[in-house]
Amino acid sequence: MASLSFVNVCKTYKNGLTVVKDFNLDIKDREFLILVGPSGCGKSMTLRMIAGLEDITSGELWIDGQLMNMTSPQSRDLSMVFQSYALYPHLTVYQNMAFGLKVHKVPKDEIEKRVGRAAEILHISHLLDRKPSALSGGQKQRVAIGSVIVRQPKAYLMDEPLSNLDAKLRSQMRVELAKIHRELGATIIYVTHDQVEAMTLGTRIVVMNSGVIQQAASPNDIYENPVNKFVAGFIGSPSMNFFPVWVARRGEKICLEFGKNKLIANEICSKRLVEDGYVGRRVYLGIRPEDFHEEGPEEQKILFDVEMKEVLGAEILFHGRINREEICVRLSPNVKAEPGERLPVYVDMDRIKLFDMDTEQNIIYV
Amino acid sequence: MDSVITTAAKEINRDELEKLKRSATQKALFRRRAGKFALVIVNLAMSIFVLLPLLYAVSIAFMPSSELFTTEMNLIPGNPTLENFRQAMVKIPLNRFIVNSFFVAGCITFGQILSCSLAAFSFSFLDFKGKNLLFMVVMATMMIPGEATIISNYLTVSGLHWLDSYNVLIIPYLTSAMGIFLFRQFYKSFPISLYESARIDGCSNLRFIYSILIPLTKSAIGAMAVYTFINAWNMYMWPLLVTGSDRMRTVQIGIGMLDSVDSQSISMMIAGVVMIIIPSISVFIAGQRQLIRGMFSGAVKG
Ligand SMILES: Nc1ncnc2c1ncn2[C@@H]1O[C@H](COP(=O)(O)OP(=O)(O)O)[C@@H](O)[C@H]1O
Ligand SMILES: [Mg+2]
Q1: In this model, does residue B301 exceed pLDDT 50?
Q2: How far, in Å, from the CA of A19 to the mean position of ligand 1?
Q3: Which of A261, A217, A214, A249 is CA-nearest to residue A355?
Q4: How do the domains of chain B map onto residue ranges?
Q5: FRET label pair with B188: which of A55, A272, B68, B254, CA 20 to 30 Å apart?
Q6: How far is CA B299 from CA A336, B188, B220, B251, in A?
């Protein structure tokens, strides 16, 4: 097991395109680190640089105190699950899983033991004699994970390993992966664009956008205290609602006004807004769908036009508009409202977020 | 009452329906069979048409010369004889030629498979400076016709004192741009993530080649082997130029020797030709399946 650090790592293509920019990060031993971000933001590229499949244009990559920039992938002692499975089609499942061990000259009985155990964990013991062509997508993916966990490398790299599974299998595999992480005590670097995976699996999440780290923090921190509008909007499902609002002083209070709606900011927000000189300017107000309630004090009420409702059983999602801004609200199933109606909801003012209009930084970031 | 009648009517209807269905399926079946039969006939006719010269040659090889030179149309030998074969063997040391050809073609095939697959491997999997330039240089050699370089090649090998030896027949042909190109095309359809995965698993390049790349490109290798072997077997110009003694001649030259001015026997020459096409045809038949699979293995991802 190992720790990794990136120092100012950049990746630039020959055509001048910079895919990863100034990447600085320390990954501790036994950490389950999640790289998350929209498609094309450079997550796979970062992982491939760790594995040695891509050259690092500038900067340093350290693994366990050793500079790795020039080390070949073969001698980095890592193992990786590819998005496209990468199973050897001419080998059986057993041989696929044993391949890496054989290359590392692990004794035969030890190989048998480890493959057997991994197959058990992943529920593929009955498939060991099959060729990959006789497996379903989910089974292939599990074999791919299996051939990685049989090894005991310095770190495990996984590139969207659950992306090809159906919803049920995916949630099962999430649980298994969390268990594997606990049992192996391994350093895992895990790429995904699925924020549910990110939130449930990671001990730490790194949110990336266009090759730049936006924030690296624990799942809870990322959710409660996003550093900017991008992170706030990316993490959470359905995502946070954003409205441009005017910050105005009304007597003693600081108000957030948009259309006919007026919300009174709480003490902390007011203090920040006044101190940083936002009074009289516009900011983005961010409210998560679950921070609306059916009832509450009058000064936290806003009205919106329901356009669609999604009944999910334990909750209802209302989609609609305030002025021209789209809004999504999550309420309990006993709220009766139909599309076309105007619904009053109450905002939990202690949980709102405020973002600068230009820099999109979180104004109340702590 | 009513209901009884309607059920009876239904009964009849069902029987008739059954009959109609059966006759319809029979008709369809007949039509399909007739179509297949017609196809077989057409194919047979075509293959006879295409194979006729070859079959006629085989038949001539068994004819006494007297039968060949008549005004009648003799397609089948009246008194089949092995005399032509015996004469051909006596006139030239055909055994020695066949052994030479086998040895030379075998070495060339082995050498080309080895060198071309390794070169193509580095062109498609490795990353090094000047890779594309080097590949273009290799490809450019294909554009120079062999005839243009044959004199200078001759001077080179004679300077090395290689004339009239196996060296001169084999060594210049140990690699080919065409082979490198074909192998590279095969490798292009090979998923690069398998290579990357093997590398991360701690595999060296050589280990990747023998435990993953070769098993997965067997059909391409087979196809290349058949193609190279037949090409080498059929070489004419170069062996004619650089070999002088019976010891080193290959079969294609040997056959040319049957055609001498003083004793022209067409049936004997053809007997010799029939003897030397047997090896190349058998190589083709043995490798046929590989060849066809190899040709398509790049097209359909398998
Ligand atoms: N060979 C290449 N040349 C130029 N740009 C590339 C190349 N390969 C990938 N990219 C770009 O790098 C970016 C990051 O890709 P990737 O890391 O695969 O994204 P993701 O976060 O979805 O895994 C993408 O925008 C992609 O277009
Ligand atoms: Mg990716």
Answers
A1: no
A2: 7
A3: A214
A4: 2-61, 84-297
A5: A55
A6: 59, 11, 12, 36
Tokens of A104: 């590392």
Is ligand 1 within 6 A of the CB of residue A43?
Answer: yes
Domain segments of chain A: what residues? 4-229, 241-356
Distance in angstroms (rounded) separating the CA atoms of residues B193 and B92: 56
CATH topology of domain B84-297: MetI-like fold (1.10.3720)
Residue A16 CA to ligand 1 center (angstroms) comes to 13
Helix crossing, B266-297 with B83-91: angle to 10°?
A: 90
Mean pLDDT on A246-263: 89
What is the token pair recorded at B100?
């030479």
Distance CA A195, CA A232 (A): 12
Q: Are B271 and B57 in contact (CB under 8 A)?
A: no
Kindly tell me if the per-residue pLDDT of B278 is higher than 90.
no
**Tens of pLDDT along B35-51?**
999 999 999 999 999 99
Strand-pairing partners, residue A32, are: A188
pLDDT value at position B297? 47
Put simply, the answer to whether B197 touches A90 (Cβ < 8 Å) is no
Q: Judge: B201–A72 Cβ closer than 8 Å, yes or no.
A: no
Q: Which percentage of chain A shows pLDDT scores above 70?
A: 100
For chain A, strand residue ranges (E) read 4-12, 18-27, 32-36, 58-63, 66-67, 78-81, 155-159, 188-192, 204-209, 212-217, 241-250, 253-258, 261-264, 282-287, 292-293, 301-311, 316-322, 325-331, 342-347, 353-356
Q: List the structure tokens of B104.
A: 């030379």
Q: Is the pTM of this model over 0.90?
A: no
Tell me what the mean pLDDT of segment B122-126 comes to: 94
Q: Which of residues 96-135 of B touch A (CB under 8 A)?
A: none
Q: Which residue, B142, B161, B296, B109, is CA-closest to B219?
A: B296
Which class in CATH covers the domain with range A4-229?
A: alpha beta
pLDDT > 60? residue B78: yes
Once rounded to an integer, what is the mean pLDDT over residues A328-341? 90
User: Residue A80 phi/psi, 5° resolution?
Assistant: -140, 135
Length of chain B: 302
Residue A124 has pLDDT above 50, yes or no: yes
Contacts (Cβ under 8 Å, ≥6 apart) of A75: B202
One-letter amino acid at B100 equals N
A241-356 classified as CATH 3.90.640.90: no
Residue B4 pLDDT = 60
Shortest-distance ligand to the CA of residue A82: 2
Assigned token pair, B47:
């293959």
